Amino acid sequence: MASVQFQADADLNQTIVTGIIRRQPSISFQTATEAGLEGLQDAEVLALSTKQQRILVTHDRRTMPTEFAKFLVNSQSSGVLIVSRKTALEIVIEELILIWSVTTAEEWINRIAKIPL
Description:
Elements: E1 6-8, H1 14-23, E2 29-30, H2 32-35, H3 42-51, E3 55-58, H4 64-74, E4 80-83, H5 89-102, E5 112-115
Parallel strand pairs: 1-2, 1-3, 3-4, 4-5
Helix pairs in contact: 1-5, 3-4
């Protein structure tokens, strides 16, 4: 059973990534810059995060659910978490740390969820 790893989408508030790493340095949370996601289409972002076995964390609730469904037609996904911009950063950080600590990567395959859960 593999541990959960996260991939920040280009639109994700960087404060979330920074806050998680400060609270739990052992969490693998790759930034969009580290992954080279700037300018990529949603399908390319999903493919890259899946190739690296990372759950994609995004604020994009407008296009990502549809792109995720299209992606699943021909591919398997490591999962997607859609974070509401209205949710307090502390809650987002707590929920992502909780997901990392109590679930496995296998539980997120082909799954999409919203935060707050």
